[in-house]
Fold each of these.
Amino acid sequence: MSQPTTPRVPGVALWDLPTRIFHWALVVLILVAWFSAEENMLLHRWSGYGVLGLLVFRLWWGVAGGSTARFASFLTGPSATLAYLKTVGERSPSHAAGHNPVGAWSVVAMIAVMLALTVLGLFAGDIDGVESGPLSYMVDFDTSRLCAEWHELLFRVLQGLVVLHLLAVAYYWAWKRQNLIGAMITGKSAFAAEPLRRGRLWSLLVGLILAVGVAWAAAKGLRL
Amino acid sequence: MPEKTSVAGIALVLALTAGAAVAATSVEKAVALRQAGYKEMGKSFKAINDELKKDAPDTKLIAAEAKKVHGFSLAIPKWFPKDSGPETGIKMRAKADIWAEPAKFADATKALQVESQKLRVAAGKGDIEAVKVQFKATGGACGGCHKPFRAEEK
């Protein structure tokens, strides 16, 4: 009782392990896909299947995972987004339990762009007809080229979104004195308003089966 | 036999480009013919590749497309007449090195002709496993010329 109250709140659980593994595995695989593009297409395709599996898992976890991973918990309407934007310049940590209302839209945009570009990659083919995604046999030459061009274009869009994401993380670090990277590594935050409610084990297993199943089917060109 | 397929390849490309190149100059025609030829070769390659991904590839289709690929490879030396390079100002990925280093370009072309001939033979026999191996080798021969002589896409 006589202990002085510490200004630091002990870390509370914020991001569950599946969400953190999703995040960092995605970072690695996107980098692998980026640098293997047009250099090592076998590796490029495999990293793409990995990204597809991760995205499928994340979509499932977004409806049936831990509380802070659920889309319903962090997607807000325009008024809440605007209200948050008004406070974002304040020099104090944000107490949003997980994604803040603005970051939420960034997350959705990145997932949507990655999903679209990954699916386009499945149908893409190179100009020589030599290298191709596993589903390119379903479309003609010109369509496979169009898919390849949009695949590349959307990757540029993703690069832009990732730069915004990194700038936002840097802003929170420097201006708001909030370490978002540490939270995504340890899963703990000193600032979360309400702690994480973890997802169920069966839900995790269903998500893993879905992810592996979709990635495998795509890699096999949907010939099972 | 190779001469016959070569003629067939050229005739096919000519037919394909004839309509589009009516009012063009001879240089424009040469470039259009070349680009249409490579596109057709890409389509043939894709058609073979698509079949190879199937459980039961259509060996007849593969044989026909492999024959076309080889025919196109034999036509390549005629696709690069003098003064049809990037100096024309026409949008193209062909590098000036093709005309600056004709011996090197001829070697690269020859490599494709050799590999695509093997592909044609394997496809003619309907030997899918041999086609798979030779498809990679032929694709490698394409790359052997594209690396030094084809500019990056702008």
Amino acid sequence: MKRRTALKLVAAGVAAERVQIAGRQLFALAQAPSGYKLRFFNDEQNLLLDRLTELIIPADDHSPGAHAAKVSLFIDLMVSYSKPDVQDQWTHGLRALENESRERFRKPFLECVAAWQDQIMQTISRNEDHPTTELEKFFRILKSRTIDGYYTSESGFTRS
Amino acid sequence: MLNALMTQGSSKPDVFDVVVVGAGAGGGTMSRVMAGKGAKVALLEAGPKLVPEEEFKEHDWPYHYDHRGAGPGGAGYFGRGKPFGFMRTTSGGWELPDEPYTVGAGSEFVWFRSRIVGGRTNHYGRMSFRLSEWDLKARDRDGVGPNWPIGYADLAPYYDKAEKFIGVTGTHEGIPSAPDGVFHEPPPPKAHELLVQATGKKLGIPFIANRRAVITRSINGRAACHYCGQCGRGCLTASAYSASQVDIFPALKTGNLTLLTDAMAREVLTNASGKAEGVLYIDRNTRQVKRVLGKAVVLAASTCESARILLNSKSKLFPNGLANGSGMVGRNLMDTVGLSVSGYVPALEGMPVYNTDGFGGSHLYAPWWGYNDHAKLGFPRGYHIEFGGGFRMPGVHSGHNAARRAGYGKRIKEWMRQEYGARVGFAGRGEMIPNRFSYCEIDPAIVDDWGIPVLRFHFKFSDYEWKQARHMEETFKGIIESLGGRVTGVGNAWEKSGISTGGSIIHEVGTARMGTDPRSSVLNPYCQAHEVKNLFVTDGSCFVTNPDKNPTLTINALSWRAADYLAEAMRKGDV
């Protein structure tokens, strides 16, 4: 896509100087953000978040999922910018989910088999339009940021 | 660039031939034309210089940023991002912390100001429609509002010049309300646009090629549009018109143009005989008050800002503000009437995703079609339809509708695939009739951070506009239903009351209108002040009415016409 844009610029007869500038811009942009360091969540929370986003947007025949698109890192960045009450909603939400898992299946969420994880996801997503419990509300914001992060990622853009 | 003023041995600065205030469409055109004729021009811009290569994010994708387009600090999520989004080339905005304005009790008005070389033309929609004879002489048809002192024959040669120079797409249609022009070939319609066009035919609404200031063949060293579709982000190849890249940067190469940036104009200076002799401004970088002198002064600071400068230019000879013997400066403030309706069209579901080559915005639009029906419509003037849809650039916030109710898992992806491209939105852009409740004046109590008295706005739509907005709403609902779709929303954030908030369409005009009678107008038909021969105002403030044609092209044409007139008058020594 990017290469194509650059070629079109040349084909369109854009002055060489301009193409160089555009090309530099495109090259700089091709260096996707990397070496991201967690700003808000700890490693453990991030692993859980990563799994949750992948459950919301899994890899399928068409494209990679939220895990490959590193959506949890986007969420970390946005939560780091959020007000304390929103940040609390995230930490409390992750903790409540963990508690739910231990209560129902006597295991941390990440150690549950897929079917059990799915049961918990079903519970927290069932009132998406009118969430009432803490976990239902957490699902809303979790899903919202997951959609944002995935569909603005490279695979979300070009392959999904 | 301040050298021209500052390097003089004596305390008396150079006198320019023309001092222009405002580096947007009007000031850019004036500066380019005058500098091209050999005049020494000083151009004042309240904002900084523009470096497109650094500023424009034309080809960026959201995933090139950690924040994916939400903006630094996630600003887009928290309602404090750039207007229209991180990627857009907008400078300034709805609120400028150092330059407040006030709104009178009972009024709502918002004022978008760009503070940068090129002004709002760096990011504007670039819709370029000619006023018709009917627009200019509308009173003759319906008895409502004033006529313009000029007719289509006066403007047409300058529309020709402006279109040839800036480049406008379009097709020849012979529609009386939408005069044809000198056109570049438009890009082909997108799939959803063809569907809308077909349904429009059934409903008697003509959807024709959009007329936008984008070139599709190379002119004047500008490359033809490369169809990235992101005009609002600024165009690195200047294929989309902007006053900065198309007027001002080339004019600087003549050596006749001196650009003074970060220069906040405060007032026009006049001499004892009542002639303008320059502009008093504040250098934002040093906070120093400075003067730049000229044989003629042209205000093109934007409709309300020019009115503000005139009203703040009080003197013994001009106690009510400069050129304001008529009391019309600040009066007759108009914006465009706006109302939008969005819909979901199942017929567009699951369409194979294709690269919708073309320019940003719609490739089609509908000029006003009901010009013979106003008696039965119950409102005097028309509107045109702009619409959107298709495979738009996704960003944060854009996938929520499709994903809603899909729970979690693979189904979300299936829904997103199915719904991508199935949403459409229609927006009306209609004429507002000037009224005595809509004006701006100097707020007697408040000055901005630069010590300059600020504007206070008063604004009201009348029944004419409300009825027109209801017609828009019914029409757009009808189109969506005719497409087999369902209406998903009426009104955007600015339109919660059922009509756009005054100023929010950013088409404000009328505050120093032209006319033949100095008792009821500020300017003559050449944008020259009745009371001050060497003072011109060539932005939207000279407009007499505000037809449904987005104002920039007419500003380009009127400013060019004023420049020719001014140059001729200077040649004769008659300013």
Amino acid sequence: MKLSNMYQEVILDHYKSPRGKGLREPFTGQSHQVNPTCGDEITVRVKLSEDKNIIEDISYEGVGCSISQAAMSILFEQVLGKNVSEFDEISKEFLAMMQSKGIYEPNEDLLGDGIAMIGVAQYPARIKCALLSWMGVKDAIIRSKGENK
Amino acid sequence: MTESKIKLDVKTIKLDFPILQQNVRNGNKLVYLDSAATSQKPKIVIDAVSSYYEKINSGVHRGAHYLAELATDAYEDSRQAIAGFVNVKAEQIIFTKNATESINLLAYGLLNATLQAKFDKKIDPRLVISENDEILITELEHHSNIVPWQDLCLKTGAQLKWIPLNADGSLDYSSLEKLVSKKTKVISVTHMSNVLGTLTDIELITKYAKSVNALLFIDACQSVPHMPVDFQNLGADAIAWSGHKMLGPLGIGLFAATTELLDILPPFLTGGSMIETVTMEKTTFAKAPKKFEAGTPAAAEAVGLAQGVAYLNKIGMTNVFQHEKDLANKMVQGLLEIPGVTVFGPHDGNRGGAVSFALQGLHPHDVGQVLDDLGIAVRVGHHCAKPAMKKLNVQSTTRASTYIYNDESDVDIFLDGVTKVFEFFGSK
């Protein structure tokens, strides 16, 4: 089954045992994202350090398919403790991979388990599932910085 | 019209649909179970559209040249055929872009009447919506039968009221006693749910609507393509449905209403084709149906749809409905036999062909993806019915929906596919 390209072992593992799940206090910014086509929703909180540079915590709660849930869990693992500019770099790489229709050599150092999502990039209808949490974190960071009141 | 009871010869029917002859993902034969979203088209429909453009294309109702005559006749003959299908006169059929536009035609017609009534005493008070009025819909509606009414309330100050949906997928008819009052100006309900396949008790709703002289609108998107519908028996003021869900091309919707309503309702869109005469001071409108068909119409689509109607007439709508009930029944019973599957909506046989279900612990997107891998096309998501989803206490569902080109073997492949979904995620 070609489908196993999409549902790689590592994705199903993150889906079944999500890392860092649950909404936590304190947080500096929160974002609510909705995928209008399927109704999936996710709430993401980010806690930035005092200098607004280090991502000290990411917490989340949501309902969604295996891809969207696994993407959030992978993001948590990959981004926690990193600074904002590193997040931007990782986020850019992830987006490039997802928009590649699956023809891409992803940077594993940046994406970690995220490279498993390359199979999802072959299914246009599911790309949004993988990107929902990334958009949430990005938005929560912007809100933390007070750039979007 | 009497029809002989026949069992559908699906093997032969399938051959009339070119799209069903192809293989999809992984070389699997396409099993199309998404007809509640849009139906596939038989070759005669596709050919009729091509033939219109190859032989008679020209502006209908304009010009007196040879092609204009042929095109106008073809367009009006199509209207006649569609009118006969739901038992109204041709002038009671309005062609729109889709069913959503049809519902907006009514909602905006009422808004226009309300605005105009401030200056024009001739506007019928039945059409005027005020702050003290109420519009009644159900929690089972498709967004296209929610949002236009919400919007009309927003602009008029009227209150939107909801007939509740029970957890078992039926409507709470006992609420009507309280919900319907002198304040009720419009009642707008679905005839058959696009999510659950539930049939609405139109007879009862009509009785309530008549008791307070409210306008009754019925969303017939899922009923007209799948069961016999006689407008005269419904007792509604207006109904709407889409052509593309009943074998017709995309881009053509229908609005049918009583002659009385079409006479008093102001137009939604204005411009060319819908006028009687235009001077710099004033315009007078043509009579329906033209009054509601501003601009150049989708004539090729109308002609294509008429062929879809002819195709359905040949089978007979009673036979179509029985066929779909049989398939839905097999589907529901088969699903209920698979451990971990929940079926929403009616479990008995008196229902339409749309079956919504859930697999324990699995998200519909993931269910749909595995089915897709097997060549089975289903719909996943909220089916544009978020209030209903909320009432059923789910985020989204997977929905399989049938039509005349589906047979028992499609249902078997589908049921086998559902078992494979569990295997795929379970074995990982």
